[in-house]
Design goal:
two-stranded parallel sheet, alpha/beta
Length: 216
């Protein structure tokens, strides 16, 4: 599953496809997984100083290598795991920034393909994000709606709180104060200032590469 189209989330596709092709050439056992993402995941994006920071592989090229499940609507990956598709952006304090321009246009890219996963436990929801360009609070609210469950056990991933405005950070902290999530694992694109602010209202757990989490 790809969370959105930016280079740090899609440029691993190229070496991965090379690896799969090498396995085929060598007649080694392998599986070709289904690629799950928003339909706009292959949007090419540029900006001043960056000729390309969207995916390097086109939709047409990808279709030659992997089956794809592209959807703007939520759908189940398993009995407990759900891909959220396109996240409605209802809050005025988040999910409003654009990142570069769509290739060959002057249209700003607001990353509509930004998505997340939600894992349904018997005790509530675990939400797994990439960057949260759509807004971490928007994502949580949509996960609650899709799963018809207001209980949040954990939120893991990027919160997109990297040098946020005071309005965004204060509004996010207020949201989490009322959310009553059991804990958070905030990592990618979440700065120290934001973690400290959130730690005043919710339990922030340490997180890093290699972390393994188990839920009952």
């Amino acid at each position: 599953m790809l969370s959105h189209n930016h280079l740090d989330h899609t440029w691993g596709l190229d070496p991965f496809l090379k690896h799969l092709t090498e396995l085929q050439i060598e007649n080694q056992n392998h599986k070709s997984p289904t690629l799950v993402a928003h339909p706009k995941i292959f949007t090419s994006v540029s900006a001043d100083g960056f000729n390309e920071f969207g995916p390097l592989v086109s939709k047409e090229k990808m279709a030659k290598h992997l089956p794809m499940q592209l959807s703007a609507q939520p759908f189940s990956l398993s009995a407990r795991l759900t891909f959220l598709g396109e996240i409605p952006r209802k809050n005025d304090f988040e999910g409003t920034l654009s990142f570069g321009r769509k290739e060959g246009t002057t249209t700003n890219d607001h990353v509509p393909d930004d998505s997340a996963l939600v894992y349904k436990l018997d005790t509530g929801l675990v939400i797994i994000t990439g960057c949260s360009h759509a807004g971490i609070c928007n994502i949580i609210e949509y996960a609650k709606e899709v799963c018809a469950d207001k209980r949040i056990v954990d939120v893991i991933g990027g919160f997109h709180l990297q040098n946020p405005s005071k309005h965004q950070l204060d509004s996010t902290v207020t949201y989490f104060k009322t959310l009553q999530a059991q804990k958070l694992h905030a990592c990618h694109c979440t700065d120290l200032q934001s973690k400290i602010a959130l730690a005043a209202v919710v339990d922030i757990e340490e997180v890093g590469v290699g972390l393994s989490l188990k839920y009952k």
